[in-house]
Amino acid sequence: AGDSKDYDREVETVCPYCGVGCQISLKVKDDKILYAEGIDGPANENRLCVKGRFGFDYIHHPHRLTKPLIRREDAPAKGLNVEPGNWHEFFREATWDEALDAAANGLAKLRDDDGRRVAGFGSAKCSNEEAYLFQKMIRQGFGHNNVDHCTRLCHASSVAALMENVGSGAVTATFNEIENADVAIAIGCNPIENHPVAATYFKQFTKRGGKLIVMDPRGQGMKRFASHMLQFRAGSDVSMLNAIMNVIVEENLYDQQYIEAFTENWTAMKEHLKGFPPEEMEKICGIPAETLRDVARTFATAKSAMIFWGMGVSQHIHGTDNSRCLIALALMCGQVGRPGSGLHPLRGQNNVQGASDAGLIPMFLPDYQSVTDDGVRSAFTDVWKSGDFSNEKGLTVVEIMDAIHDGQIKGMYILGENPAMSDPDVDHARDALAKLEHLVVQDIFLTETANYADVILPSSAWYEKTGTVTNTNRQVQMGRPAVPSPGDAKEDWWIEVELAKRLGLDWNYTHPKEVFAEMKLNMKSFDNITWDRLETTAVTYPSLSPEDPGQPIVFGDGFPRSEGRARFAPASVIPPAEFPDEEYPFILITGRQLEHWHTGSMTRRASVLDAVEPEANCSLHPRTLRELGVAPGDYIKLSTRRGTVTVMARADRAVAEKNVFLPFAYVEAAANILTNSALDPYGKIPEFKFSAVRVEKAELL
Ligand code: SF4
Question: What are the residue boundaries of the 4Fe-4S Mo/W bis-MGD-type domain, all occurrences included (predicted)?
Fold first, then answer.
């Protein structure tokens, strides 16, 4: 940190990166952010990780989009790499009026044929108000529900399981509740790298004697703090978790009273678990039966216990089943709804919880109200003062790409998402984007997706705008602008409103607080939460009165399901969509690393973060590297049935032998060229966490 004399103003807002939602103070001089400090937010209590502290200067990067752009008629083919140095060969600068007219006219022309020809991807990097407006535009303006965002690529399967069995898609307790727990399971998550400030609470919990059970196919930093480290075989989660629950049943360690009072389907669950004895499951998951027994006893006899999970659980074709197991484990031990207990899927993006709550998903309107319910739709169209829209669930992220290939979808509006990097089997997605007749991209940089755009709309970065966000803890917080937007860039809500007007919608919002007020009309989760309150404090939903700071723990007296009961959903073993074989003998696991965020568009332009991790890399066990004749620092070729990338190899004992871990932030070795687009049937999430891969030493020229 610098000297207080260094800056001429400070602005309190929320970090733009992960779902922890740390509150941050930005010190600004001459409209430049000089440095950042953590402040006393409910989720971070003055702490920040390296991304929050040092990852802010991407907003001042010379690559920022500052003018609306329209594709030139004589432009080369779509998909060629548009860069800051050559963009004028592809695009010409335009006024806002010209660009908005071009964007709206292209979409309206397709709508004249059929509203279903247009789909939209909104963003978990935008505010709640912007997410709400985006889904409203697709539903009101095009008459259907083909609207989705990156939740489909992270926790859609967790939400599917939670909605099915608990009746709510959000966490039942904040992560800070771990301070009241005796035992915690962290499975398929790597908080030290991905939720670093949450990880500090986990470490404190172990320091005061809490038992942390870490379950992950990859070793990780939390191992040092764990009472148990279960490095199970990738893809064997359901077998392992069912074996643990089998022990709890066999040894009568479950909470009969809780089960009788608050759950249903227990008899079927008990019967199902008989098929998963630990001695048999040991052969599948690789964890000794005695360890499974010990973990079962530790969890089931805890006074209070929590379960945390991440994308290692959700990004499988059996992601929903993985979450069903975790929910069942908590329910059978009565570990929901009390201090120090609960279910907590650690949300990824800073506003993926809020964007999902705001209805940026194809099956639900705001507050997870079903689009198939006539009463729900009419409640919204009453507020919107417009006619009905489709009662059919819309298509999801990967399904939309398939529908473009099939010719059903011909135009897209993509705000702050980068499917040309983030979708599985990304060459398939890029081919789809190239086929679109009209693509409007709204972003802060020329992303890989912008290579395919017809119109590019330059938007404000998070630190340049006003709006609310909701973190993984259900805490709603206010984001405030610290610096002006560069050039002609505008806040996303303003662009959405101007585009909607040109699509014939009667939108007259002049400030995000008017959008927030409209959201409250049909979102009970925002009861007792007002814009004015959020100007002064964060509020956790549900908030029971205008003075209540919100409820960190929910469902102590029953669940929002029929008769107030949660449900046990027995999960059977579904194998990964493809297995290693002679041609592709290794397992590829993709994920994040501490310094880089998702597709890298922000952090690779943040000078400190990029200096620490400047080059695409992947990690393998040193023995595996030796067998391949590869030294750390050599380049290797990774090939799957979808494609090949070349990347620098690192040695890492945390990675299991015959496994490869590849971060997905690097365009020059785009992990999603390799990944499989096979989907979980319930959450429709792709299997990013398991692909069969071949590894060879690369012959560099
Ligand atoms: Fe930002 Fe997440 Fe780091 Fe907090 S933990 S500073 S929210 S990236």
Answer: 8-63
* The residue to which tokens 């004589």 are assigned: 74
The best mutation among 37, 49, 608 to test binding of ligand 1, ranked by most ligand atoms within 8 Å of the C-beta, falls on 49
Spatial separation of the C-alpha atoms in residues 8 and 427, rounded to whole Å = 47
E-only strand ranges, 124-275: 147-148, 183-187, 211-215, 228-230, 263-264
E strands in 562-675 = 566-567, 586-591, 617-620, 635-639, 644-651, 659-663
DSSP letter string over 646-684? EEEEEE-TTSPTTEEEEES--GGG-GGGT-EEEE-TTT-
Q: What angle do CA 100, 103, 105 make, to 5 degrees?
A: 100
Give CA 47 to chain center in angstroms. Answer: 22
Task: Specify the 3-state DSSP secondary structure of 583.
Answer: coil
d(CA 587, CA 626): 17
Contacts of 488 (CB under 8 A, 6+ apart): 66, 67, 68, 96, 458
Q: How far apart are the first and last CA of the chain?
A: 44
Q: What is the pLDDT of residue 541?
A: 97
Number of Cβ within 10 Å of residue 91's Cβ equals 22
CB atoms within 10 A of CB 10: 15
Write the DSSP assignment of 457-468 as a string of letters.
EEB--GGG--EE
User: What ipTM does this complex have?
Assistant: 1.00
- At residue 625, what is the residue type? L
Integer Cα distance of 469 and 20 in angstroms: 11
- Closest atom of ligand 1 to 43 CA is 4
The residue behind tokens 């959000």 is 170
The distance from CA 388 to its chain's CA centroid, rounded to whole angstroms, is 30
Q: Which atom of ligand 1 is nearest to the CA of 198?
A: 5
Is 93 in a helix, a strand, or coil? strand
Distance 38 CA to ligand 1 centre (A): 10
Using CA atoms, how far apart are residues 194 and 185, in angstroms rounded to an integer?
16
Question: Given 3-state DSSP classes, what are the helix, strand and coil percentages for the chain, each rounded to the nearest 5?
Answer: 40, 20, 45
Angle at 287 (CA atoms; ends 284, 289), nearest 5 degrees: 95
* Ligand 1 atom at minimal distance to the Cα of residue 16: 1
Q: Does residue 20's CB lie within 6 angstroms of at least one atom of ligand 1?
A: yes
Q: Is 691 in a helix, a strand, or coil? A: strand
User: To the nearest 10°, the Cα dihedral for 160, 449, 33, 482?
Assistant: -60
- Please report the pLDDT score of residue 556 as a whole number: 96
DSSP of 295-351:
HHHHHHT-SSEEEEE-HHHHSSTTHHHHHHHHHHHHHHTT-SSSTT-EEEE---BTT
Report the pLDDT value the prediction gives residue 4, as an integer from 0 to 100: 54
Helix (H, G, I), strand (E, B) or coil at 191: helix
User: For residue 98, what pLDDT is reported?
Assistant: 98
Report in angstroms the alpha-carbon separations of 99 from 82, 91, 435, 556: 18, 11, 21, 52
CB 638 within 8 A of CB 666: no
Using 70 as the pLDDT threshold, list the residues of the chain that sit under it: 1-5, 701
Whole-prediction pTM value?
A: 0.95
d(CA 18, CA 471): 8
Q: Name the residue of 197, 352, 353, 472 whose CB sits within 8 Å of the most ligand 1 atoms, as the mutation to test its pocket.
A: 197
Whether the Cβ atoms of residue 321 and residue 571 lie closer than 8 Å to each other: yes
21 lines ligand 1 (CB under 6 A): yes
| pLDDT score recorded for residue 155 | 86
Ligand 1 midpoint to CA 47 (Å)? 9
